[in-house]
Amino acid sequence: MEAKTPLFSMLLMTSTLLVVAASNYMFAWMMMELNMLTFTPLMCSKKSSSAIETSIKYLIPQSFASSLFILAISMTTFLPNHNMLTTTALLMKLGSAPFHTWFPTVMMSINLVAGFILMTWQKIIPLTLMSIPQLSHTPLILVSAAVTALWGSIAGLNQTNTTLMLAFSSVAHLAWMISATLFSVSVTLLYFTLYTLTLLTIFNLMNTQNLMSHKMFMHTMLNPNHLMIFVLNFLSLAGMPPFAMFSGKLVIVYLMKNMMTTLVIMLISAAISLYFYMVITFTSFLNSMNSLSLLNKMLHFSAINIMTLVLQLSALPLTLYLTIE
């Protein structure tokens, strides 16, 4: 399995890029299937019954969604509302509510690398196809966005496992991504890129420091650089101004100004999810800030802290430009 991992990774990237460049629905479906089949072995880093069970939990909803998608595009001339079926299939592949139950279960059972891929790269194909007007059903997307945002924020409140909390956070952010597909590919790409870069930093820190639960944050003393990086990126993930994720949400809020019902629900959900972001941020911050000397060290910004801060704030000019446009 280890020797074949680069091959699967290459096929995973190639299939995704081919879908982005595809102009034929059938070819896009074939590449979507290849993408699903190449990701499955990456989930099974160890040969065990639990790994096989996790793969099955992933494959069943994905296969059903793929079957629904090919059925819909094959009956375009016979079904006037075929875009409702394609949207349903793509929402199921994304793990959007109400087709979300498989996502947190799978996230709990896979390693951090596979989890990061599932939360980021594996969203590219469904989001790309959903941005095609002929394949999207606007009312269904708006309803799903509202329910997804609400469920993701509420479900993450009582979580003590960091990976599971980030999984529910991913569901909440997914609501903003699928809403962005209704307006512009560039806005969807902006939000997705900001989310991916922020999540990459957090997952890298979790992997190096082995921070898998809130209790570990309470008992782990992070060095000043790691603490600053962690706090900045979690504040960004929470959507706090003036960080990067706030910039992405600001654009989408502006574009959704005529969809007040869905927008209000999403904003309320963002406020709810802010709570569990603050809990884990302040838990880590207060635990590590047990001495004034550490506070003084944090105030002397290192190069990596400056780079992180610049990355988080660099989205503001682009956001203002897109908003004005």
From TrEMBL:
<keyword id="KW-0813">Transport</keyword>
<feature type="domain" description="NADH:quinone oxidoreductase/Mrp antiporter transmembrane">
    <location>
        <begin position="85"/>
        <end position="272"/>
    </location>
</feature>
<dbReference type="GO" id="GO:0005743">
    <property type="term" value="C:mitochondrial inner membrane"/>
</dbReference>
<keyword id="KW-0472">Membrane</keyword>
<feature type="transmembrane region" description="Helical">
    <location>
        <begin position="227"/>
        <end position="256"/>
    </location>
</feature>
<dbReference type="Pfam" id="PF00361">
    <property type="entry name" value="Proton_antipo_M"/>
</dbReference>
<dbReference type="InterPro" id="IPR001750">
    <property type="entry name" value="ND/Mrp_TM"/>
</dbReference>
<feature type="transmembrane region" description="Helical">
    <location>
        <begin position="58"/>
        <end position="79"/>
    </location>
</feature>
<keyword id="KW-0496">Mitochondrion</keyword>
<keyword id="KW-0520">NAD</keyword>
<keyword id="KW-1278">Translocase</keyword>
<keyword id="KW-0679">Respiratory chain</keyword>
<protein>
    <recommendedName>
        <fullName>NADH-ubiquinone oxidoreductase chain 2</fullName>
        <ecNumber>7.1.1.2</ecNumber>
    </recommendedName>
</protein>
<keyword id="KW-0249">Electron transport</keyword>
<dbReference type="GO" id="GO:0008137">
    <property type="term" value="F:NADH dehydrogenase (ubiquinone) activity"/>
</dbReference>
<feature type="transmembrane region" description="Helical">
    <location>
        <begin position="298"/>
        <end position="324"/>
    </location>
</feature>
<comment type="similarity">
    <text>Belongs to the complex I subunit 2 family.</text>
</comment>
<feature type="transmembrane region" description="Helical">
    <location>
        <begin position="177"/>
        <end position="206"/>
    </location>
</feature>
<feature type="transmembrane region" description="Helical">
    <location>
        <begin position="6"/>
        <end position="27"/>
    </location>
</feature>
<comment type="function">
    <text>Core subunit of the mitochondrial membrane respiratory chain NADH dehydrogenase (Complex I) which catalyzes electron transfer from NADH through the respiratory chain, using ubiquinone as an electron acceptor. Essential for the catalytic activity and assembly of complex I.</text>
</comment>
<keyword id="KW-0812">Transmembrane</keyword>
<keyword id="KW-0830">Ubiquinone</keyword>
<dbReference type="InterPro" id="IPR003917">
    <property type="entry name" value="NADH_UbQ_OxRdtase_chain2"/>
</dbReference>
<feature type="transmembrane region" description="Helical">
    <location>
        <begin position="262"/>
        <end position="286"/>
    </location>
</feature>
<dbReference type="GO" id="GO:0006120">
    <property type="term" value="P:mitochondrial electron transport, NADH to ubiquinone"/>
</dbReference>
<feature type="transmembrane region" description="Helical">
    <location>
        <begin position="99"/>
        <end position="119"/>
    </location>
</feature>
<keyword id="KW-1133">Transmembrane helix</keyword>
<keyword id="KW-0999">Mitochondrion inner membrane</keyword>
<feature type="transmembrane region" description="Helical">
    <location>
        <begin position="140"/>
        <end position="157"/>
    </location>
</feature>
<dbReference type="InterPro" id="IPR050175">
    <property type="entry name" value="Complex_I_Subunit_2"/>
</dbReference>
